[in-house]
Amino acid sequence: MVHNQRRGGRSDWSTPGGVIDEGETVLEGLAREVTEETGLVVDEWTGPVYTVSAEAHDMNWLLRVEVHLAAGYAGVIKIEDPDGIVTAAEWIPRTQLTQLLEGQQLWLREPLLDYLHGEVEEGYEFRYRIDGVDIDDLRVQRL
Fold first, then answer.
1. What integer is the mean pLDDT of 70-79?
2. Which of 39, 48, 84, 117 has the highest CB neighbour count under 10 A?
3. Which CATH class, in words, describes the domain spanning 2-142?
4. HSE-up of 83 (CA within 13 Å, CB side)?
5. What are the DSSP calls for 49-71, one per residue?
6. How much is the pLDDT for 50?
7. Strand extents, DSSP E, 34-135
């Protein structure tokens, strides 16, 4: 898990990831993001283990996430995030994830916890509608 320092002073924990650059495949972008945010090198993936689609009508954005599982890794944790968002990376026991993700956006927290607890089949798509523009007062509905 990585600790993110967000704009406006907010912070949260998430799995490593980010935006896929032009010309990259999803797995190339994911491998790059994991290395930048954790220092770990992953060259084999399984999945996608689940996907997330979240549409924020009032903010005019659409989030599409493919979550893949690393089949192995090399290296040691070393953060070199060029975006300056990731401030820490740690191995977190599954038993501590629910508490760690408390307060995290529903469209990020719920899919990860449901997947880890075996509540969804591999390849499941989570879909959400987000209404509002204030990050502290969003209305999120799972579809």
1. 96
2. 48
3. alpha beta
4. 16
5. EEEEEEEETTTTEEEEEEEEEES
6. 97
7. 45-56, 61-70, 86-89, 124-131
